[in-house]
Each structure stands twice: as C-alpha cells, then as structure tokens.
Amino acid sequence: MKLFTKLFLLTIIDFIIIWFWVKEIDPEPSVSIALVIVVPAVMLINLAIAVILYFTKREYSKVFVINSFISAILMYFLFQNGIERHQNLRYESWTFNRKDTIFAIIHSKLDNTFSMTVSTNQGSTTEFLEGKFRENGNEYYLTSDSTEYKIRNEYLFGFRNSTDSIKLTKIER
Q: Are 43 and 74 a contacting pair, CB within 8 Å?
C-alpha cells in the first residue's frame, strides 16, 4: 500500500475515533483549555506508536509520524466544533444597539428562559433582566415579573415602549 493510501485510511480512522470521543464528552466552552492537553496527547500517542512500529514494522512508522500532525489538527478542529455544537444545542441569541450600548438577548433552550445583558464601550457586561421564554409559531414571547417583549421576524417589540420595534441581529456560531 502506498504512503498516501495508508495516511488516508489512518486519517479516516482518526476522524471517526476523535469525532465519537468529542461527541461523547460534549465539551462546553469552559473546558476549551483542555486543547492544551488533548492536542499534544494525540501527537504523543501517534509518536509512541511510531516508535514501537519502528522496531517491528518499519514501513508503518513513517505513516504514524506524519499522522501525528494530521491527528493533532483533526483533534483541534473537531474539539472546537464540539464546543460550538454544545452551545448551539443549548443557546440562541440576538443583539441590538442603542446609541453606544449593545444589548443581547440569550435564550436558554433547555429550560426555556432568557436573559438580557447590556454592554458599554468600556467592555463591561451586566445582566439586567431574566424571565421565561415561550415560542408560539414564528413568534417568541419573553416575560419577566414586570415586562413582556415579543420577537417576530427578527424584530423586538415593546423594549422601551409598546410601539417600539428594534431590528435584531441573530448571533450565528
């Protein structure tokens, strides 16, 4: 078998193993620091296999040395993709601007709640409102103890007054 064919097959196997592992652990953003450990670990495992094969089946040793770099790159991108998948399954969010202030609406899909945050130019973000999130067709209703907002066709209604409509920008991850 040629070197390219061996590398291709090994890359497919690596992709399947890493993809299933990342899907199983379902990484959240707080564990992204784990990349500092798992990427070098994947390289070291492949290099250890290359050393063992150097003494038993030399023709495969070179494949695992090259694969150590390929699998590290795969691990990095699949782990990042796993974090994005985790976030997309749990949250959706929108932003809008008022003067030099950025507002964000974050919908937690798991418990159907929402929160609103405000960010200023100085970079500080403050959560100022929480409540229930209800979906009715293509409309979303955000209710708290004292307020009710509606999102329809990417517009927020009732933010400052009942006739106010504000264009929202959906955050795509």
A: no
Residue 154 sits at φ, ψ, to 5 deg, of 65, 25
What residue spans define the domains of the chain? 3-89, 99-171
User: How open is the CA angle 65-69-74, to the nearest 5 degrees?
Assistant: 135
The enclosing H or E element of 85 equals helix 58-90
For residue 92, how many other CB atoms are within 10 A of its CB? Answer: 19
Point out which residues pair with 26 in neighbouring strands: none
The values of phi and psi at residue 58, to 5°, are -60, -35
Q: For the full predicted model, state whether its pTM sits above 0.90.
A: no
Q: Which residue has the tokens 């955000």?
A: 142
pLDDT at 1 over 80: no
